[in-house]
Amino acid sequence: MNPFNQLLPEGPQLQPGLCTLVDADIAYIHLISDIATGLAYFSIPAALLVFVLRRRDLAYPWVFGLFAMFIIACGATHLMHAWTLFSPDYVTEALIKLICAAVSVTTAIVLWPLLPRLLALPSPGALAREVEERRAAEARALASEARVTAFIDNLAEALFVIRINGADDFVVETVNPAFERLFGLRGADIAQRPVAEVIAPHLLAAAMPHWQQALETRRPVEYVMDAETMLGPRIWQTVLVPMTGADGTVESLLGSARDITLTRRLQADLLQSARLATVGTMCAGLAHETSQPLNAATLWLRNARAAAAELGPADPAARLGTALGVIDSQLRRAGDLVARIRALPGAESGAAQVFDAARCAAAAVRTAAGQYAPERIDVVLRSDVASLPVQGVPARLEQALLQLLSNARDAVQDRRLRDPDAAAEILVTLAEDGGEAVIEVRDNGTGVPDALRDVIFDPFFTTRDPGRGSGLGLPLAAAIARAMGGRIDVHNLPDGGAVFTMRLALAQPQDRIDQPETVPC
Amino acid sequence: MAAPRILVAEDEGLAAMALEDELLREGYAVTLAPDGLAALEAAAQEPPDLLLTDLRMPRLDGSALIRALRAARPDLPVVVMTGYAPAGGAAAFAADGEAPISLFAKPLDMDAVLAELRKLLNRP
């Protein structure tokens, strides 16, 4: 006999599925709870499914599948339980329970070994911390990169990177603002373009041997360039570092160039000053000591001439007169030389005043143009300024400019000896630059050989034949410029010829007011 | 009227002799002094109408001589002969209110010097 039957109350037979429940209220609680739990168990896997579908990066997605199956199986047992209240389908219920048990046990078995691995996964908090750390690191990197960029952008040295694509295929990769300032080239205009297209041929020809050396030796190369750039003559010192790739070939050249034009000019000026101080002292002494015997001889010559004049017109007296005339002219010549040497150290004769260098230059150009016209040499004046107030002695400045013009004329005539059809032109330009009056005398002559550039301002240095040129012209011009708070530089033009640049301190405005502006040159 | 007296301070004996010759021929009275100190002594004995002086001399140089003589006689005309002109030219010797100083570089252009002497001494 079925032991459960003892529990059944006496009375009317209950519906088959509700046989175990005596109280209808309890039966309804069971029914509602099972249906509610079953539906809930069916909805949870749906939520899991949505989660898995949305989050494709889950570490163990199959675990969610397993959970879903487990929950669905459990839900199914609850719904089945509700069903059996009405219909005694116990075989099906048993099957569903079996499936539920299998899935539950499988899940339980699988879960434990998986637990350490799940625990090893970073928690959202840890992930958030890591994300935060990475963001901070990224911010630091960005700030550091910004610092490096700012550093490179504000670096005084010109930086450039040349990419080496092949033996003769060099491309400008990038340059910094200092590079743009040094060479007058815009980075945007030259980046990613072949060097031959963007760098002047004479610069490239001068630099290329150094680049090749860096490529061949794969070692840093240091060199100094002295050349005409877009912005005028510049001297710069470059360090070139070859950057090699993984295979050992040089992929790019990293160059840093420092503008040493001013430093070099200062050095040259110092050297020149030291040399001139010595030469100046020597000249002063020489002039003084030479003038004494010349003076005595000249005075006694007058004496002798006076005596000879009293001899009468006989032959010997005439010859004596001629001889004395020769001595006289030679003494005068020596006297003139002494006067020029005396003028060299720059001691001014005549009082300094404020005057217009532009008018002075115009006067000198007029004089020279008239003198050189028969030789078919054009002298042209071009001026960017209305006036150039400077302080000094007008006649001395004109003398200096005439000297530069005469020098230019000699240069174009030398060129003609080699190349008779060459156009002979001397261009004088006037400009104002950085508080200085700039007077340039530009010729298309033979240029100044590099080796002579430092000595052409030395007294008595000359490339002329004996008797032509005393070697005092340029030193005199330089001495006059110095006395006016300036200097003269020379450099060669890329296409031949030379430019002598005279820079003079502009007179201060207060000086200009004190002085009449109509001082004639 | 007595001939104007020119005091010549010049340490180069030969040049001084030639100058003396020229000046005497022009009708001036001449006193020669081989240096600045001798010139001061000569001026004390016989006051000159004009000083013709070199700059570089032993014992007392030309600049000091000019200052000493002009301290007593600011209107004394002075002609300087020099182998090396000072910076600023003749203006370097002159103080305000003094008579002008003429500067000639050696070797001297004697005609120019004689013309200047005539002008300074108001002679035809």
From TrEMBL, chain A:
Boundaries of every PAC domain copy: 219-272
Protein name per Swiss-Prot or TrEMBL: histidine kinase
Residue ranges constituting the PAS domain according to the UniProt record: 144-218
CDD domains in UniProt: PAS
This enzyme's EC code(s): 2.7.13.3
Native source organism of the sequence: Falsiroseomonas selenitidurans
Transmembrane regions: 26-53, 60-83
Alphabetical list of Pfam families matching this protein: ETR1_N, HATPase_c, PAS_4
Domain Histidine kinase residues, every copy: 285-508
Keyword tags: Membrane, Transmembrane, Transmembrane helix
Reaction(s) catalysed by this chain's protein: ATP + protein L-histidine = ADP + protein N-phospho-L-histidine
From TrEMBL, chain B:
Chain positions with 4-aspartylphosphate modification: 54
Domain Response regulatory residues, every copy: 5-121
SUPFAM superfamilies xref list: CheY-like
RNA-binding recorded as keyword: no
Keywords tagged on the record: Phosphoprotein
Signal peptide: none
Record has Phosphoprotein as a keyword: yes
InterPro entries listed in its UniProt record: Bact_response_regulator (IPR050595), CheY-like_superfamily (IPR011006), Sig_transdc_resp-reg_receiver (IPR001789)
SMART domains: REC (SM00448)
CDD domains registered for this protein in UniProt: REC
PANTHER family membership: RESPONSE REGULATORY DOMAIN-CONTAINING PROTEIN, STRESS RESPONSE REGULATOR PROTEIN 1
Protein name: Response regulator
